[in-house]
């Protein structure tokens, strides 16, 4: 899969088909809304969602870290989906963190983090409020945060929908506006923002999910 190089705010970013952003100059990998524990939370409510999403997401993170020189990893909110994340999920996260013990990690608090609580100290993740400024960017979770920096944000789930022959194709996109860039969610997504709601901006389609 081929990344798209894009210059914003005087910096080169790589928009990755894996629904992540890489900032080469600072060797930073940026992940939006990974929502560990989301599938389990929905299953507890009786919603039939698949098992194995934690292992899949951790494997994807491993592949991204191996593919791109990475000094720091920034989560744009919602590391954990809800309070009461299972012990097995937390153990998997701890083992994964220990395998990347020298990699700096930062979580910009999102709405689900406020409900789930901060991750435990054993994960060695720096916790910050938004906007988290690393010039020229402001790292945020909420879509309406105002900042002097160019905002890299999450929360809304940009989606491009199109009818392909007899069925609807749902395609996660990067949504480029004048003042910021929305990243698609890496974690399990059960809702999205149709492209008709984000007209007059650029939707950058990197991968189709049929």
Which consecutive residue ranges, at least 5 long each, have pLDDT under 50?
Answer: 190-210
Distance between the termini: 16 Å
Indicate the radius of gyration in whole angstroms: 17 Å
- Give the CATH topology: Purple Acid Phosphatase, chain A, domain 2
How many strands in all?
15
The mean pLDDT is 79
Q: Helix segment count? A: 4
Coarse structural class: alpha/beta
Explain what this protein looks like in three dimensions.
By secondary structure, the chain is of the alpha/beta class. The chain has one domain: Purple Acid Phosphatase, chain A, domain 2, CATH 3.60.21. Helix content is 20%, strand content 32%. Strands 8, 9, 10, 11, 12, 13, 14 and 15 form an 8-stranded mixed β-sheet that branches. The protein has a 7-stranded mixed β-sheet with strand order 1-2-3-4-5-6-7, with no helix packed on it. The longest helix is centred in the first third of the chain and has 15 residues. It is globular. It starts with a strand and ends in a 5-residue tail after the last strand.
Provide a short characterization of the protein structure.
With 210 residues, the chain is an alpha/beta fold. 20% of the residues lie in helices and 32% in strands. It has helices spanning 38-44, 53-67, 87-99, 111-116; strands at residues 4-8, 11-16, 20-23, 28-31, 72-75, 104-108, 126-128, 132-134, 137-139, 150-153, 158-164, 167-176, 180-182, 193-194, 202-205.
List keywords for this structure.
210 residues; alpha/beta; Purple Acid Phosphatase, chain A, domain 2; eight-stranded mixed β-sheet; seven-stranded mixed β-sheet; 4 helices; 20% helix; globular
């Amino acid at each position: 899969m081929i990344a798209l190089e894009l210059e914003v705010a005087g910096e080169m970013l790589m928009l990755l088909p894996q629904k992540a952003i890489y900032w080469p100059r600072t060797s930073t990998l940026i992940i939006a809304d990974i929502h560990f524990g989301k599938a389990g939370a929905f299953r507890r409510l009786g919603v039939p969602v698949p098992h194995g999403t934690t292992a899949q997401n951790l494997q994807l993170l491993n592949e991204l870290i191996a593919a791109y020189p990475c000094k720091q990893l920034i989560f744009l909110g919602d590391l954990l989906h809800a309070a009461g994340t299972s012990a097995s999920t937390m153990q998997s996260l701890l083992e994964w963190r220990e395998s990347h013990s020298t990699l700096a990690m930062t979580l910009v608090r999102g709405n689900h983090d406020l409900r789930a609580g901060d991750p435990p100290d054993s994960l060695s993740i720096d916790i910050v409020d938004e906007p988290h400024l690393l010039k020229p960017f402001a790292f945020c979770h909420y879509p309406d945060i105002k900042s002097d920096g160019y905002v890299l944000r999450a929360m809304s789930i940009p989606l491009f929908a199109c009818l392909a022959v007899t069925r609807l194709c749902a395609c996660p996109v990067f949504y480029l506006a004048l003042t910021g860039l929305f990243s698609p969610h890496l974690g399990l997504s059960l809702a999205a923002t149709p492209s008709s709601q984000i007209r007059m901006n650029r939707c950058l389609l990197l991968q189709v999910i049929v």
